C-alpha cells in the first residue's frame, strides 16, 4: 500500500514537471516570435563611421531625445526579450529538464 502511494506521488510530480516544461517551451516559442518581429521593426544604423567622421548631426533634436524615441523603446524591449530568451534556453537545456 505504501509503495502504491509513493508511485501515485511520483506520477503527480512527473505530471507537474512535464506541464512546467511544456509551458516553458510555449513561452520560449512566443518570445522567439516576438523577438523576431521587434528586431524587424527596428531601423538600421545609418552612417556609422562616415557619420562620426563628418560630424553627422550630433546636436540635433533627434540625438538629444533618444531616450524617449520609438527606437530606444524597441532597443530596450529587444534587450529584455533577448535576456528572457537566453534564460529560458539555458533552463530548458539544463539537467533539470533532461
Q: What this model shows, in words?
A:
There is one protein chain. The protein is mainly alpha-helical. The protein has a domain of 55 residues. 74% of the residues lie in helices and 0% in strands. The chain has four helices and no strands. The protein is rod-shaped and about 80 Å long. It starts with a helix and ends in a 5-residue tail after the last helix.
| Overall pLDDT metric | 77
Name the helix and strand elements from N-terminus to C-terminus, one letter apiece.
HHHH
Radius of gyration: 23 Å
Oligomer: single chain
Strand content: under 5%
Ends apart, CA distance between termini: 30 Å
Helix tally equals 4
User: What is the structural class?
Assistant: mainly alpha
The largest sheet is: none
User: What general outline do the C-alpha atoms trace?
Assistant: rod-shaped
Q: What level of helicity do the residues show?
A: over 70%
What is the count of β-strands? 0
Q: Which blocks of ≥5 consecutive residues have pLDDT under 50?
A: none
Amino acid at each position: 500500500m505504501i509503495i502504491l502511494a509513493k508511485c501515485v506521488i511520483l506520477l503527480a510530480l512527473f505530471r507537474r514537471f512535464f506541464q512546467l516544461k511544456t509551458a516553458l517551451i510555449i513561452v520560449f516559442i512566443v518570445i522567439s516570435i516576438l523577438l523576431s518581429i521587434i528586431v524587424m521593426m527596428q531601423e538600421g544604423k545609418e552612417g556609422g563611421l562616415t557619420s562620426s567622421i563628418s560630424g553627422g548631426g550630433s546636436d540635433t533634436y533627434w540625438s538629444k531625445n533618444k531616450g524617449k524615441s520609438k527606437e530606444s523603446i524597441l532597443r530596450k524591449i529587444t534587450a529584455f526579450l533577448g535576456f528572457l530568451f537566453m534564460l529560458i534556453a539555458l533552463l530548458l537545456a539544463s539537467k533539470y529538464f533532461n
